[in-house]
Amino acid sequence: MAKIHWIIYIAVGLLVSVLSKRLNYDKLIFFFYAGLAFILVGVVKLVYSLRKKDERRQTAQNKRQSAFGRQQNNLQQKAVHHLKRCPRCGNIARINDRFCNKCGSRF
Ligand SMILES: [Zn+2]
Prior knowledge:
The protein is mainly alpha-helical.
């Protein structure tokens, strides 16, 4: 379906139905109902676009949540950076440790 804004459907529908009613309702009754149909399509499109906006808002929320998850990952990686290696035996120790708990060498 071509991307036509819902307000155009409603505007055209209103215009056609009002004009046909004003000019010659008996002869232009088809246009009157065509206009009503256009209004209906416009309303359906309006509802549809509103629902899509809602979906977009939700995906934005999901993105924010995944960004939060990434932040947590970064924090975990930082926790890894709080570790250090013993220069003598290569044992992993916490950055605050003063002695290696494997070989006992001082940091
Ligand atoms: Zn060591």
